[in-house]
From TrEMBL:
<dbReference type="InterPro" id="IPR055900">
    <property type="entry name" value="DUF7477"/>
</dbReference>
<keyword id="KW-0808">Transferase</keyword>
<dbReference type="InterPro" id="IPR008271">
    <property type="entry name" value="Ser/Thr_kinase_AS"/>
</dbReference>
<keyword id="KW-0067">ATP-binding</keyword>
<dbReference type="InterPro" id="IPR011009">
    <property type="entry name" value="Kinase-like_dom_sf"/>
</dbReference>
<dbReference type="InterPro" id="IPR000719">
    <property type="entry name" value="Prot_kinase_dom"/>
</dbReference>
<dbReference type="Pfam" id="PF24289">
    <property type="entry name" value="DUF7477"/>
</dbReference>
<keyword id="KW-0547">Nucleotide-binding</keyword>
<comment type="similarity">
    <text>Belongs to the protein kinase superfamily. CK1 Ser/Thr protein kinase family. Casein kinase I subfamily.</text>
</comment>
<feature type="binding site">
    <location>
        <position position="35"/>
    </location>
    <ligand>
        <name>ATP</name>
    </ligand>
</feature>
<dbReference type="GO" id="GO:0005524">
    <property type="term" value="F:ATP binding"/>
</dbReference>
<protein>
    <recommendedName>
        <fullName>non-specific serine/threonine protein kinase</fullName>
        <ecNumber>2.7.11.1</ecNumber>
    </recommendedName>
</protein>
<dbReference type="InterPro" id="IPR017441">
    <property type="entry name" value="Protein_kinase_ATP_BS"/>
</dbReference>
<dbReference type="Pfam" id="PF00069">
    <property type="entry name" value="Pkinase"/>
</dbReference>
<keyword id="KW-0418">Kinase</keyword>
<keyword id="KW-0723">Serine/threonine-protein kinase</keyword>
<dbReference type="InterPro" id="IPR050235">
    <property type="entry name" value="CK1_Ser-Thr_kinase"/>
</dbReference>
Length: 418
């Protein structure tokens, strides 16, 4: 039995309070964190919270708080967890919006090791940000340890039955995460993978170090679009202006990861070794997890060889900043002849691209327009056997398009009003 105390915070799917064991005495005796989630919340779907499954799978994982009890009380699902200390956002905010380079480097080292452990269990967090990294409770042996919380948006990057990477998919109308720190891929509705957690971590580190990200300040309905556009137009050099070189190198590595590419966590950790002090015991953040990871990698390879890459650039630079007026690509390469991507297509040339694709068994799966120029994806995997389209001289709102398509779809054909 616990008595509910002050509110600690609010996560994506629930609220967290201090819980004090009834009958316990003394300051801080048997205090825990109680997370309440209403049975009708989007994280529950009238069953136990999805987050519980993730905690079950990650039980005992480095950097994930321990769960002591899960159950239901009335209309609420309750999870009893270790109580933790301030978030990195709290630390930054209470320190006049500043954080030392060594502190941020230690956070980078330990956060990478936490994500590596989580990824090794087959999950990606999906909402990496300063508010979701917490330190241990002050005055305890864990006060310098880093923890990653709020697993309500975590998803699997690896299929449990086959052990293979999940298939790529893209739904531009679906966004998961926090706009400020989300990866560009998340903005574009692409299936989450390990690269997205690391890109969000990169933005988190730069925010803590510089106090602001270039895309902050946008408001209104188009905020997500404008933030995504700004992220794509911001090069690592611009983003990491006045930051030590390892931060820029880390950004360059992670924004250029492929969808199913395995990140080189040990290499990323090694980038920051020269910034933190040589004695792990006096570092502002406990980096034991990272040290264990480096040791394990060294054992696996016989020895850990880290080349001096201070001036080395990634072999392939996919996103190094681009003019803000260019198209934002919502395309991912597929096998030859399975998918084609056309962009900057004028009205008069649209028909020839569509007809040529139809001749090769390709049909429109996505389409967008701006300033009388078109971008379209033609795909062999749509399941359509025919398509009819009409170029409209008037702009149709999204709802109107959906209703029109619903009225016109018949049999195994697709009618598109563009």
């Amino acid at each position: 039995m616990y008595r509910i105390g002050k509110k600690l915070g609010k996560g994506g799917f629930g609220q967290v309070y201090v819980g004090r064991r009834i009958g316990a005495t003394g300051p801080g005796a048997l205090e825990v964190a109680l997370k309440f989630e209403h049975r009708s919340s989007k994280g529950c779907n009238y069953g136990p919270p999805y987050e519980w499954q993730v905690y079950n799978a990650l039980g005992g994982s480095h950097g994930v708080p321990r769960v002591h009890y899960k159950g239901r009380q009335g209309d609420y699902y309750v999870m009893v967890m270790d109580i933790l200390g301030p978030s990195l956002w709290d630390v930054w905010n209470n320190n006049s919006h500043t954080m030392s380079i060594e502190m941020v480097a230690c956070i980078a080292i330990e956060a990478i090791s936490i994500l590596e452990k989580m990824h090794s269990r087959g999950y990606v967090h999906g909402d990496v940000k300063p508010e979701n990294f917490l330190l241990g409770l002050p005055g305890t042996p864990d006060e310098k340890k880093l923890f990653l919380v709020d697993l309500g948006l975590a998803t699997k990057w690896r299929d449990s039955s086959s052990g293979q990477h999940v298939e790529y998919d893209q739904r531009p109308d679906v966004f998961r995460g926090t706009v400020r720190y989300a990866s560009v891929h998340a903005h574009l509705g692409r299936t989450g993978s390990r690269r997205d957690d690391l890109e969000s971590l990169a933005y988190t580190l730069i925010f803590l170090l510089r106090g602001r990200l270039p895309w902050q300040g946008y408001q209104g309905e188009n905020k997500g679009f404008l933030v995504c556009k700004k992220k794509m137009a911001t090069s690592p050099e611009t983003l990491c202006c006045f930051c030590p070189a390892p931060f820029r190198q880390f950004v360059e590595y992670v924004v250029n990861l492929k969808f199913d590419e395995e990140p080189n966590y040990a290499k990323y950790i090694s980038l920051f070794d020269g910034i933190v002090g040589p004695n792990p015991h006096i570092r502002p953040i406990n980096t034991d997890g990272a040290q264990k990871l480096m040791y394990q990698v060294g054992q696996k390879r016989g020895r850990l060889t880290m080349e001096d890459e201070e001036d080395e650039q990634p072999k392939k630079k996919v996103r190094m900043g681009m003019p803000a007026t260019q198209w934002i690509s919502v395309y991912n390469a597929r096998r030859p002849m399975k998918q084609r991507y056309h962009y900057n297509v004028a009205d008069v040339r649209l028909a020839q691209h569509i007809e040529k694709g139809n001749e090769d068994g390709l049909f429109i799966s996505s389409v967008a327009s701006c300033s009388n120029l078109w971008a379209l994806i033609m795909d062999a995997g749509t399941g359509f056997t025919a398509q009819v389209y009409e170029l409209s001289p008037y702009f149709l709102h999204k709802v109107g398009c959906v209703l029109l398509i619903q009225r016109l779809v018949y049999c195994n054909s697709c009618y598109i009003y563009i």
